[in-house]
Amino acid sequence: MAIRLDVSGMLRRAVPTGPDAAALDALGPRLAAAVQAFEARVREGVLGFRDLEAQAGERARVLDWAATARRGLDDVVVLGIGGSALGAVCLRTALLPRDWNARSADQRDGRPRLHVLDNVDPRSVAGLLELLDLARTRVLVVSKSGSTAETMAQYLLLRDRLAAQGLSAREHLAFITDPDKGALRKVAAAEGIPAFEVPPNVGGRFSVLSPVGTVPAALFGLDVQALIDGAIAMRDRCTSAQLRENPALAFAALQWHAHETAGQGAHVLMPYSDALRDLGPWFVQLWAESLGKRTADGRHVGPTPIAAVGATDQHAQVQLFMEGPRDKTVTFVDVESHPDDLGIPHGDGAPADLAYLRGHTFGELLRTECRATAGALARGGRPTMTLRVSQVDAWHLGGLFMFFELATIYAAGLYGIDPLDQPGVELGKQLTYYQFGHPQWQGMREIWESLPASDPHWVL
Ligand SMILES: O=P(O)(O)OC[C@H]1O[C@](O)(CO)[C@@H](O)[C@@H]1O
């Protein structure tokens, strides 16, 4: 079991824009400051995602509850958005067999389907409702704040549908939210709905290892302990302020350095694995919402994360990565072992010009393409890194989650911003509240009325 970070494709000996040994050494004081800033936030009590031991009691409660709650379910529905949805999607794709929801109950060993409703597009909401037998469904309402409009709208609808069928909210809902704040907490207390805690010092995009991820994982009988153990193993490996001894710090430092010194601020994450294809969108939210900020002195900073999947994106985005602007780094995730690997047959009558595939496996083709693409990019002077994971399982996924969460906080120290807020999303939310008549936001009228009018000339 191992996760290894190979950064050789970022360094000067591989690409002309990469740092040499002296440049890496010169980063020392900045890295030390980023590590100190991290520890200062932990001491302030606002940064708790590393402290998985502190959540052991709540985890035990989750496992206990799920052992009973999962009986007799056909469907589990997660209502959530952003950090309250992307982790569950990633867990499902990584740890349940492919096309889980399309399988018959037998093919799912009697376990439920998992739907993550992370939007308010009526087509998706209505489409899902048509599929569900609510009497055999558990709905997880996931919202750290307990007030996000999209999730609350979904909750109100599901609550209404349950009531219309005479189904008990206690039996069919569960909340995952802040221990004290927000509308969900009040409803849980008043109506006895099972509710699990996201610690106040664990923000939404850092919450996948809290009940936000562990409740859905436990309902599916996934190995929650291995997920947490993998995360703890990674955390304990990433403690040093020395670049060469702390892989998460090395990732953050080299991505930031590429941005700062060579304008390479588009950061691609490209797992060569369908199981890890939803790690990309989870990383995109983490990296974008944490790091895209205005600094205290008014500068606009931050990288632009991009999700890709190998080998699929070799036929879509790699052309851009190879010959487009020199503004990107590409981080590959290479999976060493594919337990369900398949040989590529070349039986009688197979075309002679496909004989080169004979004797190889699909897993071999995938891994070779990963190495070949990394090599091709390096030859073109494009910086790359590779995270090598032994296999995709709960332990390694926990490690990857922790790796990127730690790297995000280190990167924030280097960019000089606060990774824990997201002031840039507020105005759009407030204008929506104003339009919906929310009493607290009636002061937004002037701004709403000053918005540029749409130009009918361009409407087709
Ligand atoms: O879990 P909540 O509070 O519903 O928030 C959902 C998402 O909305 C944001 O607060 C803002 O986009 C994200 O940070 C968060 O993951």
TrEMBL record:
User: What's its EC?
Assistant: 5.3.1.9
Q: Does the keyword Isomerase apply?
A: yes
Q: Which organism is it from?
A: Pseudogemmatithrix spongiicola
Keywords, A to Z, come to:
Cytoplasm, Gluconeogenesis, Glycolysis, Isomerase
> Which residues act catalytically here?
289 (proton donor), 315, 429
Q: Where is the signal peptide?
A: none
Q: Where in the cell is it found?
A: Cytoplasm
Q: In which pathway does it act?
A: Carbohydrate biosynthesis; gluconeogenesis; Carbohydrate degradation; glycolysis; D-glyceraldehyde 3-phosphate and glycerone phosphate from D-glucose: step 2/4
Q: What is the lineage of its organism?
A: Bacteria, Pseudomonadati, Gemmatimonadota, Gemmatimonadia, Gemmatimonadales
Q: Could you identify this protein by its name?
A: Glucose-6-phosphate isomerase
The job of this chain, per UniProt, is described as: Catalyzes the reversible isomerization of glucose-6-phosphate to fructose-6-phosphate.
